[in-house]
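Exercise 7. Predict the structure of Lipoprotein from Candidatus Kapaibacterium thiocyanatum.
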Amino acid sequence: MTMKNVIVPIVALCMLATMHAAGCTSSPEPSERPYFVLMQTGKLPVVINEASGLIASRMQDGVLWALNDSGDEARIFAIDDKGNLLSEVKIDNATNRDWEDIAIGPGPNEGRSYLYIGEIGDNEAKAPTIVVYRLEEPKIAASKMSATADKLEFAYPDGARDAETLLSDPTTGDLYVISKRERRNRIYRAAYPQRTGVVDTLEFVGELPFYLAVAGDVSPDGREVLVKNYINVFHWKRDVERGESFRSMFARQPDTLEYMPETQGESITWSADGSGYYTVSEQTDSTWTPRIYFYSRVGSKADVEQLRDVRRPSMSVTMDADTANYFRIRYTIPEQQHIMLYVTNPFGWRVIEIENDAAESGLVERTLDMRNKPAGNYVMRLFTSTFEVSVPFDVR
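Solution. The predicted structure, encoded as C-alpha cells:
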C-alpha cells in the first residue's frame, strides 16, 4: 500500500505505542516462546520496487515468490534469498488493482501447491467485493513465463474494508483475510473449497488485539501462525493434532517475536522447512535497496545475542531519567563510514534527521529532544552502506 495516500490519526500512533510497550501479549513461560536471530541474506532486485507480499515455495527449494503493490503489472516474481531474480511470471487473465499479499496452500488438485494472490487492498473501503487469484505454483523453466489464474471473489458480511493480510491453512484449505484499519483488526474466513464464477460471503471469525495488520503466514505444518504490523511480529501456536480452529487459536493472546521494524515492512513468510521467517520492506529509494531478512530459529533467548551478526551496527535509545521525552542514543559501528540517522513514525515517514555524514568507528552518543512531538510510537533508524538498524521507542 502506498502510504502517501493515507492519513493516520494520532490515536493510531498512541495505540501502536501501547502495543509496543505491552507487547499485546500475556507472559508465556520461557520454554513456550520460540526465539529467532536476525540474518541479512540479500537485497531485492530492482524490479521488485514496492514489495507487498512474499511467500516461500513448498515445491521448489530455495524459491521465494514476491509481488509488487498496486500500479504494477499483473505479475509475480521468483527470487532466491540472496535476491537473485529467477523468473517473472505474468498472470494473463488478472489485473493488479491493489495486490497486498500472497499465500500458498492446497487447492483443487490434491498433492499440488497453489499460490493465492490477494487483491484485497481498499484504502477508502469502497469496493463491493475483493478478489483472490488462485494458480497452481509455476515450475520455474525460464526467466519470463506466463500463467492463468482462477478468480475467487468474496464480499465481507459487514461492509467493505481495507486489508493487507491473506493466509492459507495447509491443513484445511481455508483462506483467511485480516483487515487493517479497525482498532481491533477483524478476521474473515473463506471455507474450502472456494468457488469460481460466484461471489461468496466471507465468514467473520474473530478479532485481533492489535491494529494495522499488514502481512501474515502459516507454517508449512499448520502449527504456527505469524501476523505482523509495522512494529511487531505476533505468533500463535496451534494444536493441529486436536484439530484446533483458527477461531480458537486467534482468541488467545499471541507471543511477540524478534523483529527489526523496516520502513513500511509489509511482507512476511515462513521458510519452507519452518526453521524461520523472512521479511522485506516495500520502501525503496535512490539511497537504499530493501534487504531480505531471515529470522533463524534458535534454542534460547541467550542465543539471540550470542549468534547476532557482529558486522551489524548496534544501537540503543533510552529516555533520560530526569526529563521525559528527552532521549539518549548510543550506536556502535565497526568501521568509519557514512551513516544516516533519523526518526520516523511507524509508517516510515521521516520526522527528524539527526545525522547524515561520515562517522568514526566505535561508540557514538547523541541526544534527541522529542518534548514537542505528539505522544505515540516512533522508530530510530540507522543506515550504513550495508546495514540498517532500527529501534522503536515511545513518546509519552
